[in-house]
Design goal:
The protein has 13 helices and six strands. It has about 300 residues and is of the alpha/beta class. It has one domain. Strands 4-3-5-2-1-6 form a six-stranded mixed sheet.
């Protein structure tokens, strides 16, 4: 697998979490090979919400699981209720399946052509700050000079997340994609081209977000993962309320979250009109708030929508 494919997959799995964190401040390991942490102890078991919903229509059942696109071994095993629902489903739907991407199309979205470079597209100050930040991690200017903003930021964040112990290999969508290979129909809520075009539209402001306060990333990721573990939709929604207060924040969220919510909701409604069981894994941020997928489904009045709970 070439380097462009690997980089693309990392970008795909990180786009959501980068959107949340920055606004508020791959493929070698299979599901079966992940060493799971034994979460059993003698403590009293308490019922708590999951970031997981069951949506029923007259002819279909759709399970919707909010995903964190990076993680670690401590996030596993997942709730038995979630695993049983996955096993009972005929189809897995994800934002996109990176295995279906056309390799020839990737490079133009990640790198500038031979006669161009990143330095020509951002201010000297931003470029200098970016180069200096990479230098702290031992990465030379020559390694990033041809990268477009999305690729440059993803490379920087991957270095930081790795240092903090987080890896896209332990992302929830990656976990289920690996398990579904050759076992279930894999469906896409979006197309690779749609996400590549979004990434290609990222400019200097995206780099500026990434350089604001790297020291806070660990704290922010921990808060997000804890909210996911406890089904705390309000906490995740609070990330967005904070993001909207930043310059350009509302437009950023509208472009990268809310518009996509509408198109993904429409796709899920098609599943609800088809017979069968569908297990949908989508970034947690797409599910919360009045503009989230869950609320959009509730507002139709057509479906029974229930947030599931389980014992810890």
């Amino acid at each position: 697998m070439n380097k462009e494919i690997i980089m693309y997959k990392k970008i795909v799995f990180l786009v959501l979490i980068l959107t949340i964190i920055m606004s508020t401040i791959s493929c070698a390991q299979n599901h079966s090979n992940i060493t799971l942490t034994n979460s059993y102890d003698n403590s009293p078991r308490e019922l708590h919400k999951l970031f997981f919903w069951r949506v029923r229509s007259k002819v279909s059942v759709v399970y919707i699981l909010g995903s964190i696109h990076v993680g670690n071994k401590n996030m596993f095993p997942l709730s038995e209720m979630i695993e049983v629902a996955f096993d009972a489903s005929d189809n897995l739907a994800v934002e996109i399946d990176p295995e279906k991407v056309n390799e020839k199309k990737i490079k133009k979205y990640l790198e500038y052509p031979e006669n161009d470079s990143l330095q020509n597209h951002i201010s000297p100050d931003t470029y200098a700050r970016l180069i200096n930040t990479f230098a702290r991690f031992g990465v030379s200017q020559s390694k990033i000079s041809k990268m477009k903003p999305a690729a440059a930021v993803t490379s920087l964040v991957m270095i930081n997340l790795d240092a903090l112990g987080y890896d896209p290999e332990f992302g929830i969508d990656k976990y289920y994609l690996d398990d579904a290979r050759n076992k279930k129909n894999i469906l896409e809520l979006e197309t690779p081209e749609q996400q590549l075009l979004l990434m290609d539209s990222l400019g200097e402001e995206y780099i500026e977000y990434s350089l604001q306060d790297i020291s806070r990333w660990n704290k922010e990721i921990k808060i997000l993962i804890n909210a996911w573990k406890t089904g705390d939709t309000e906490m995740v929604e609070n990330f967005f309320e904070r993001a909207a207060g930043y310059p350009g924040g509302k437009g950023f969220l509208n472009k990268f979250i809310y518009r996509r919510n509408q198109t993904m909701t429409e796709k899920i409604e098609k599943y609800l009109k088809s017979e069968g069981r569908y297990f949908v894994v989508v970034g947690a941020a797409h599910l919360v708030g009045k503009n989230g997928i869950i609320n959009k489904l509730k507002e139709t009045g057509k479906y029974q929508v229930v947030q599931m709970s389980d014992f810890n």
